[in-house]
Design goal:
162 residues; alpha+beta; Alpha-Beta Plaits; five-stranded antiparallel β-sheet; 5 strands; 40% helix
Length: 162
């Protein structure tokens, strides 16, 4: 969005794609290190990591800016930088395609529905029989039980309406 600053308390569905759609995250050890980097970067850049799934050649993330200084462009730049550095050191190749896909969610959208879409990607792709079986998925929605997960929607609506 040309006039949108990507700062503040907004929820985003972000997709990063590997260079030439190479199935880099089929290497579970590297994928798990990237998950660790993702958690660290989200914390440092003030983003709640609601859901993520590292597919073999891309990653889906549902993130929510937890403060006025939360900046999606900074978040994406840092996660790509940290993971790219490790990959380049090990292989000599680029990890990510340039740019990324994002969708800013509207207040009325159900974050749980988007989280279920993100977490269901490995099942739809035939990589796992259930969300819980896939080792490269997680986030607040993944870890919450059904009684707690819907409570994340009013938090988003309250902050966005403030």
């Amino acid at each position: 969005m040309p006039s949108f600053e990507y700062e503040g308390s907004y929820a985003y569905h972000v997709i990063l794609t590997t260079q030439d759609r190479m199935p880099i995250f089929a290497d579970l050890a590297f994928g798990k290190r990237c998950v660790s980097h993702l958690k660290s970067v989200s914390e440092k850049t003030l983003f709640r990591l609601l859901a993520y799934s590292f597919m073999p050649d891309h990653v889906h993330m549902l993130v929510f800016g937890s403060g006025d200084s939360s900046n999606l462009l900074t978040f994406v730049q840092r996660i790509k930088q940290v993971t790219s550095y490790e990959f380049k050191q090990a292989t000599g190749h680029r990890l990510w395609q340039q740019s990324f896909y994002d969708r800013t969610l509207r207040v009325e959208e159900d974050l749980g529905e988007v989280a279920r879409y993100v977490l269901g990607n490995p099942v739809r792709a035939g990589l796992a029989g259930s969300d819980a079986e896939y080792p490269l998925s997680g986030g607040e929605y993944f870890e919450a039980d059904e009684a707690k997960a819907p409570s994340l929607l009013p938090i988003y609506q309250g902050e966005a309406n403030a």
